[in-house]
Amino acid sequence: MIKAIIPQMRTTDMPSSIRFYTEKLGFTVEFNYQDFYVGISTAGQTIHLKLVDEKDPSITYVDEGGHLHLYFETEGVADFAAQIKANGVPMVEEVHETEWSTRELVIHDDQGHTLYFGEPL
Description:
By secondary structure, this protein is an alpha/beta fold. The protein has a single domain (8-120), classed as 2,3-Dihydroxybiphenyl 1,2-Dioxygenase, domain 1 (Roll), CATH 3.10.180. Helix content is 24%, strand content 38%. The strands form two sheets. A four-stranded mixed sheet has the order 1-4-3-2, covered by helices on one side. Strands 5-8-7-6 form a four-stranded mixed sheet, sandwiched between helices. The mean pLDDT is 96.
């Protein structure tokens, strides 16, 4: 039985990524294995961060194609936007309503990964 899906995000600067996800977004560190593999979590969901030598090649592809790396279903997305703005996170796209009946915002993490946060209308 599958209990969870855990994506892995690549980073060239682990301390920066940990700070971004914990201090800016409010995640917590679940484990830190030899400073090259870290699990961070929020609301019972986990993401793994892996230290790599080269920038994640998907970042440019995602930006050019209007894709995303992660989508977080978020309750109270406008309040969340205000919170992370207060923490110094710039918006790629401000909170907006979509044609597919969601309210969303878009940011980049410290590495340039595209993160969407949204809620159903």
